[in-house]
């Protein structure tokens, strides 16, 4: 059967899987499109498609069967990494399409597996990117690759990371906003993303300043205003540097 074309979001997730990977676990697999794509394109030898939802797993089973892959993609119902053991010999875990806090919780609940140095993780939060970056940094995950992309009118980030005992929490106070890695190769999407973030922050700043004209801000509001001002300056610097780099590429 011809493989169903996957979305740009799923393509970016699949592209993050290391070329050395042989067996993946796809957490929250839904229709099973990620493991099907990876196996059919010979990116991995086999996969485990897992989901906490029985109805989603049935969809995955149907898709896997349609593609004649039931002998190499195994379906398991359960929560997060708890569906596997060391005997499964999974080398890469994909967790995508969830909030950053939930992804952090999934990693924490199975720390005996998620903190194995040989395990790779492909993570794609739909929200809560700062919280996820914070968790990964605090627990010594090293970013191997990162990408910012736009799909269906929204911006997403996807990471490839793994535990490194020598990795220390980031000292860059704005790392959790937008890492230096993502700004190394500026393009139109990066500039658009920065402008959107700036606009959001400017609106927050405007609202707080309006409030300040009417009432005295409490300590929490004052700190929020100062933080927003600093973030605006950060994005202005990044945009200036990115614009210069973008101009050099196409000038």
Automatic annotation (TrEMBL):
**Single GO term (MF):** tRNA (adenine(22)-N1)-methyltransferase activity
Q: Please give the superkingdom of this protein's source.
A: Bacteria
CDD domains tied to this protein: AdoMet_MTases
Protein's UniProt name: SAM-dependent methyltransferase
Q: Which organism is it from?
A: Filifactor alocis (strain ATCC 35896 / CCUG 47790 / D40 B5)
